[in-house]
Amino acid sequence: MKSNYRSVYTAFDPYPSRKGSAIHIEKASQVLSHRFGKTLLLTLPRQVHSRVRRPIKHMQFQVKESNYLQRAQAYSHWVDEVLNGQHHLQVGHFRDIWGGQPILKRSSLLSVFEVNGLPSIELTNRFNYITQDTIQKITQLEDYCLQQCDVILCPSETIKTHLISRNVIKDKIHVLPNGATVPIAMNKPSWAPEEYIVYFGALQPWQGVDVLLKAMQYLADKPNLKLIICSSHKEKFSRPYKKLILRLDLEQQVIWKHKLDKQTLDKVLQHAMASIAPLTECSRNLKQGCSPLKIFESMACKVPIIASDLPVVREILTPEVDAKLVRPDRPAELARAIRLLVDYPQLRKDLASNAFDKLSERYTWEKIDAKLSDFYDKLVINVYA
Question: Which domains are seen in the chain, by residue range?
Answer without folding.
Answer: 7-178+365-384 (3.40.50.2000), 195-363 (3.40.50.2000)
